[in-house]
Amino acid sequence: MNNVPTDQLNNNYNDEIDLRELFHVLWDKRFYIGAITSIFSLISIIYALMLPNIYQSQAVMMPMEANQGMSGMLGQYSGMASLAGISLPSESGSKAQEAIARIQSFEFFSNAFLPHIKLENLMAVKKWNQASNTLTYDEGAFNSESGQWLREASPPKSNIPSSQKAYKQYQAIMSVSQDKKTSFVTLSVEHESPVIAQQWVEIMMDQIDQVMRDQDRQIALQSIAYLNSLAPTVNYEEIKQALSSLQQEQMKRLMMVEANENYIFKVLDSPIVPEMKVKPKRSAIVILGTILGMMLSVLGVLVLHYTRKSS
Fold it and tell me: Does residue 234 or residue 27 have the better pLDDT?
């Protein structure tokens, strides 16, 4: 029969004494621990109740990809046109990916989105009143009665939030992404008001369609004018036929720009006014606050006990 070493027995005995001592220390300070935990729990409850509800409205869209035919035609004739020293414009990438990048850009925000909303609804909202469908603003930032901004700002900054500062808030509340498998694009906005969240998603959808429609219209018109000016200078019959085909494609492109109601995206699921909030998760906040209070109180009791014991 193997004999257990004396040192190991002493260590096990000391460990057992330590665990008992630890239990007695915590038990003696149970009211202190309970009081601290209760205080943290109460603070977390108050904090959770003070947070405004945040609602999310979203739209699901399918890319139209109206320019695929034009890209193929350009590729077909680019080699032939290069023989005559003609450089044709090339199109690469996805229109949906371009639209997503534009929606996320500062240029789209400042030129296409910001002019269609109220700045205070982006930068100074405190909470939303469901019964009256009205917004309450941060009194230290914006006076709703006078329409004046009250933010403190040192010169040369203005008390009115700049477009760059507003853009940061825009990035925080807006999300746009594309599913790699289905290519569907999801656009969402979070706001204290579910009505505004829904309206802002619609504004983004309308504006990105209009911005890219205007861009392609301008490109088509410029291409047609360029091809018309180029045709009299070309002597090769095959090149003339290629230019004529390109002109027809540009006319088709222009027709698609003007005729399609949905130019970039086809809406599969329109944004709605949500009834349920997405955050805050008040129960999770209270639970985490309570756990934090318990851990800190237990740690404080143990540190204080062993500090006094070692001194």
Answer: 27
